[in-house]
Each structure stands twice: as structure tokens, then as C-alpha cells.
């Protein structure tokens, strides 16, 4: 796994982390395409209330809770772009903090091995005014842990299938 901070096309700094899993790209993307699994690997997500039909089609949403019970907040994450099995882009809302732009890119550097890269930056609300280096301090460890959890989930689901 590696973490870097880079400029996107708009010049805003974003955090990038990556992980590699020993499965075909379609199997890795299938975990991202299952909205009901998000609470099992996204750090901070505590409960999935509803996943819109046809997730992850553009415009569909995951209705989720964030935080530890009983101090949870309810919000949504919406798909803004998707190119199965190579890319999923999300707009994740978090009540008073604002929203984050999140993008997952998947590729196969070799057969039956998938690299998953996750990019994130605060995009709206008070969080968007936090300097990039400070966002990185929060997003990098959180996203590294999220991708590690996702990798374990993907590998566990693939036992005997790859």
C-alpha cells in the first residue's frame, strides 16, 4: 500500500492510497458494486440503511449512518460516475462537515491481480477549506485502513473462486 498527495485536474490536492489483491478485476469491482458491504470496510460507516436499486448506476445512493451508536449521523453517498470494472466515483455527504469527492480506480498490472487506488478530497462545506496537508493527515490513515479492510473482504470472498 502507498499513500501520496497529488494535484487533480482542478489543482486541488487529494489523498491517494492503493492496495493490490490477487483476484481478477471483475471480482474486486464486485465488492465495490455491493453497497450493502460498505459498513464492513469503510472506516466510520456504521450502518447501511438503504441501497438504491441499480447501485452503482450514476445517481444511485447508499443511505448510511456514520459514527458510533448512539452518536450517529445519517447521510448519503451518491454515485457520480462509473465505468465497471475500472472506476467508481462518489460524492459522500457528511452532514455539517460537508462532502467528499472519492474515486476508486482499478487496473490489472498482471493477469488475476488487481490494483485498487482510492483518491479523496473534501469538496464542499467547511471541510473544503481545510488545507490539503491537513486533509491528508486525516484521509491517508483512514483510507489505508479502509482499503486494507476491502482487500481482506475481497480475498475472503474469492477463496476458491480465483
Automatic annotation (TrEMBL):
CDD domains: SRPBCC (cd07812). SUPFAM superfamilies: Bet v1-like (SSF55961). InterPro entries: Polyketide_cyclase/dehydratase, START-like_dom_sf. It comes from the Bacteria. Gene3D superfamilies: 3.30.530.20. This is SRPBCC family protein. It comes from Nocardia cyriacigeorgica.
